[in-house]
Amino acid sequence: MGVLHRLADELRATWRVVLRELSVFGAVGLFNLGVDIAVFNLCTLVLDLDALSSKALATAVSATSAYFMHRGMTFAHRARTGFRREYGLFFLFNAIALVLGLAVIAAAQYVVDLDDALSLNLANLVAVGVGTAFRFWTYKRWVFPAVTRVDGELAAR
Fold first, then answer.
1. Partners of residue 147 on adjacent β-strands
2. What are the residue boundaries of the structural domains of the chain, listed by start?
3. Is 91 left (phi over 0), alpha (psi -120 to 50) or beta?
4. How far apart are CA 145 and CA 140, in angstroms?
C-alpha cells in the first residue's frame, strides 16, 4: 500500500501544480486579452489602421506584458534559464500564435468578407483562443521548463 499512497500523493501534487498554472495562466491571459482588445480597437477604430496591422501591434503589446506576468507569477516555480533565452522563445512562440491569429482574422475579413467591427472582434477572440492553447503548451514545455534535480543540483528539464 505504501507505493500506491506515494503514487497517489505524487499525482495529487502534480495536478495541484497544473491547476495552479492553468488558473494563473488564465488570469494573466484574461488581463492581457483586455490589453489586446483595447489596443486592437484603438488601432482599428481610432487610429484607422488595417485589421492585420492592428492585430500585430496588439499582440506585441499584450505579449510583452504577458511575458513578465508569466515569468513572475504563472511559472515562477519553474527553472530560470536566462532572460534572453526565455524572452526569445516566448516571442518566437507568440509570433507563431500571431500567424495563427492573423490567419483567422484574414479568413474572416477576406474569405468570408466580414469586415465590420463586431465581426472583426469575434474573429480576434477566436484567434486569441487558438493562440492561448498553443502558448500554454509551448511556454510550459520550452520557455519555462520544469525544475529537476540532478545529483542534488537543480537543473531545467
1. 156
2. 2-156
3. alpha
4. 6
What's the confidence (pLDDT) of residue 138? 96
Q: How many residues does the chain have?
A: 157
Residue 89 has pLDDT above 90, yes or no: yes
Q: Which three three-digit cell numbers place residue 34?
A: 483586455
Q: Which three cell numbers stand for residue 82?
A: 536566462
Over the stretch 11-67, which tens digit does the pLDDT of each residue have? Answer: 787 788 888 898 999 999 899 989 999 999 999 999 999 999 999 899 889 988 999
Q: Which residues pair with 156 in a beta bridge?
A: 147
pTM, two decimals, is 0.69
How do strand 147-150 and strand 153-156 relate by DSSP bridges?
Answer: antiparallel
CB 118 within 8 A of CB 104: no
The pair phi, psi for residue 18, each rounded to 5°, is: -60, -45
Q: What are the grid coordinates assigned to 123, written together? A: 474573429
